[in-house]
Design goal:
Glutaredoxin; 2 domains; 5-stranded mixed β-sheet; Glutathione S-transferase Yfyf (Class Pi), Chain A, domain 2
């Protein structure tokens, strides 16, 4: 168990290299919120995790004032709504159309990037892993156009500041480097998606994300192998 920012009435149950946990951490940092972080052992899940998320039994779980909230995108939107006055960027646009557009692309990311991410992690055949990496490449090519439209020439999907799609897609950035070593495919490549490649470097270096996203490829692979064994 480790404390972040002095604790408070927010507690996050997670695993250090999970993109779904990392995106919640980024938003907590963006909002300047104090929270207690509890590292879970997914091979020996805690009673608190099982009680807090009895349906899926997965991380992340945010506990606020003793009440649990599960599922990463749900948690992010909860934080944005409940702590709207806490400072930091709004994360979700105030305009209803732009907000709906951000939610669309965030759902696209977890479908078209998140699903192949699971395949690369758990598939046994190299051919299946390579096919999943190719699907991520295709998704990122689509997201290159989405970034162009959403950013309107600025630094992030959210414009001048980190927004909802930045948080959701950005949470996979550390894993893109892992995939390159595991599968031999550079999924985020400046030659194919120059705008996204530059965006990825910008986001990973931003204060709310730089101490959250995993950057030690060998450590992530070692952790994954121990979990799968």
């Amino acid at each position: 168990m480790a404390a972040k920012g002095g604790g408070g009435d927010l507690k996050l149950l997670g695993v250090w290299d999970s993109p779904y946990v990392n995106r919640v951490q980024i938003v907590l940092n963006l909002k300047g919120l104090s929270y207690e972080y509890v590292e879970e052992d997914l091979l020996h899940k805690s009673a608190l995790l099982l009680e807090s998320n009895p349906v899926h039994k997965k991380v992340p779980v945010l506990i606020h004032g003793g009440r649990p909230i599960a599922e990463s995108q749900v948690i992010v939107q909860y934080l944005v709504e409940v702590f709207a006055g806490a400072g930091g960027p709004s994360v979700l646009p105030t305009d209803p159309y732009e907000r709906a557009t951000a939610r669309f692309w965030a759902a696209f990311v977890d479908d078209k990037v998140g699903s192949p991410w699971h395949t690369i992690l758990f598939a046994r055949e190299a051919e299946e892993k390579a096919g999943a990496a190719a699907r991520i490449v295709t998704a990122l090519e689509t997201l290159e156009g989405a970034f162009r439209d959403c950013s309107r020439g600025r630094g992030y999907f959210g414009g001048d500041g980190i927004g909802f799609v930045d948080v959701v897609l950005g949470s996979y950035l550390g894993w893109f480097k892992v995939f390159e070593k595991m599968v031999g495919v550079r999924v985020l490549d400046a030659a194919r998606t120059p705008l996204l490649a530059a965006w990825g470097e910008r986001l990973a270096a931003a204060g709310p994300a730089k101490d959250v996203l995993p950057d030690d490829v060998d450590k992530v692979i070692e952790f994954l192998q121990a979990f799968l064994d």
